[in-house]
């Protein structure tokens, strides 16, 4: 006598994630203007206080503060991408490019000099229009050799392949984000640059949306 065991298989409906660029109202954003307005008032008050403090210190001290601020932004931004930069090399590179004398400056790497050059153009020349060519210039500063470690990359142009943000072990990867398809990039970037260069919003609001 054969014993037959029947297995009942329950199929669970798979819910596919929707990424922000797939939303039907993309790229229109909305927010609570009253709540944001309250936050902006606090930010503007803090900025006014900071500008007041900076106005009473000497030029050298002011430039030293600028070096520290930009250096901190560069280091923190790189940490978000999982890249740890040498603090002293970044400070020395920023100071050298701004003409600020530091005691015992440190020789910086070519990569750090590229990151600093990009960051200074973005901050010092913040009033200049953002263009495709400017973005490509920043990209070239980051990857002057055309390589990122052992990986060959497309320098100074938009990607031609798919892009995903993935974590986890091989075979057990978790997909956190899927970027727009490469054929959409030109249209999306044109739309983004037109919006970014417009006077549509307060600068702080614009940075949050971007």
Give a quick summary of the entry:
The protein has 210 residues and is mainly α. 49% of the residues lie in helices and 6% in strands. It has a two-stranded antiparallel sheet.
Give a structural overview.
The protein is mostly helical and 210 residues long. The chain is built from seven helices and four strands. The strands form two sheets. It has a two-stranded antiparallel sheet. Helix 2 crosses helix 3 and helix 4 (110-124) runs antiparallel to helix 5. Residues 1-8 have low confidence and may be disordered.
Regions with pLDDT < 50 over 5+ consecutive residues? 1-8
Arithmetic mean pLDDT: 88
Helix fraction, binned, reads 40-55%
Kindly state the number of beta strands: 4
Describe the global form: globular
Structural class: mainly alpha
Distance between the termini: 70 Å
- Biggest sheet statistics: 2 strands, antiparallel
Strand order of the largest sheet: 1-2
Q: Number of DSSP helices?
A: 7
SSE pattern: HHHHHEEEEHH
Beta strand %: 5-15%
Radius of gyration: 24 Å
SSE diagram, text form:
Elements (H helix, E strand, L loop, with lengths): L32 H23 L3 H22 L6 H12 L11 H15 L7 H11 L4 E2 L2 E2 L11 E4 L6 E5 L6 H12 L6 H7 L1
Antiparallel strand pairs: 1-2, 3-4
